[in-house]
Amino acid sequence: LHSFPTRRSSDLVSSEIERVEVVSAGVDASKVHVLPPPVIAPQMNHTRGRFRRLLGISDQSALILFVGRISRIKNLVSLVEAFSLLPSEGAHLALVGPHEDAEYAEELRRAVCTHSIDRRFHMPGAIFGAGKDEAIIDATVCVLPSLSENFGHFAWEASGAGKVVVIGDRKSVV
Predict the structure, then answer these.
(1) How far is Cα 89 from Cα 172, in angstroms, rounded to an integer?
(2) 51, 57, 126, 138, 172 from 47: Cα distances, Å
(3) 139 vs 13, 48, 60, 102, 167, CA distance in Å?
(4) Do the Cβ atoms of 88 and 58 come closer than 8 Å?
(5) Do 135 and 113 touch, CB atoms closer than 8 A?
(6) In 3D, which of 57, 52, 96 has the Cα closest to residue 76?
(7) How many CB atoms lie within 10 A of CB 42?
(8) What CA–CA distance (Å, rounded) separates 48 from 42?
(9) Alpha helices of the chain — where are they, by DSSP H?
(10) Which residues, given as ranges, of the chain have pLDDT below 70?
């Protein structure tokens, strides 16, 4: 953790997990307050199917979607392994987000090849704004398998769009 200036009336953090971390770094617990960031649900006026067409996925196929940083803490290799166990050849997995760690992205690609799901796996990179909303709208199921999550924006956005959201059981997402 970073060092904290000592002359403040209070600190705002985005989750209870972050609050515990700040207090354990020596900040007076009575001065640390949780204020979750606002979440805006995707606008439902976007055209359905645009994200699927971008990836070449039919409307009849299930689309399992993750949106977030492509990094080790997100536990995406485990997601790839779990996806490979699905009986449906028609299901697709899309991991949308910036590659934070090139070595981890390569590890993901190896897992995809090892489990022979390359025809059903998509990693289009970072998509923001309307494009991200379209991805969420087109998803069948949204997943957040993180090992630790300070505040799971994606889970809130997907839930706000009426999607089924599967969340890892490791740490709080709110």
Answers:
(1) 32
(2) 9, 15, 19, 9, 32
(3) 31, 10, 11, 26, 15
(4) no
(5) no
(6) 96
(7) 20
(8) 12
(9) 16-24, 50-55, 76-84, 102-114, 130-138, 153-160
(10) 1-10, 14, 36-45, 150-151, 170-174
Pick from 162, 125, 163, 124: which is nearest to 143 by CA? 163
* CA atoms 121, 144, 76, 135: torsion sign: positive
**In this predicted model, what pLDDT tens digit does every residue of 55-87 receive, in sequence order?**
999 999 999 999 999 999 899 999 999 999 988
Is residue 147 within 8 A of residue 170, CB to CB? The reply is yes
pTM of the model: 0.75
The structure tokens 């910036």 sit at 98
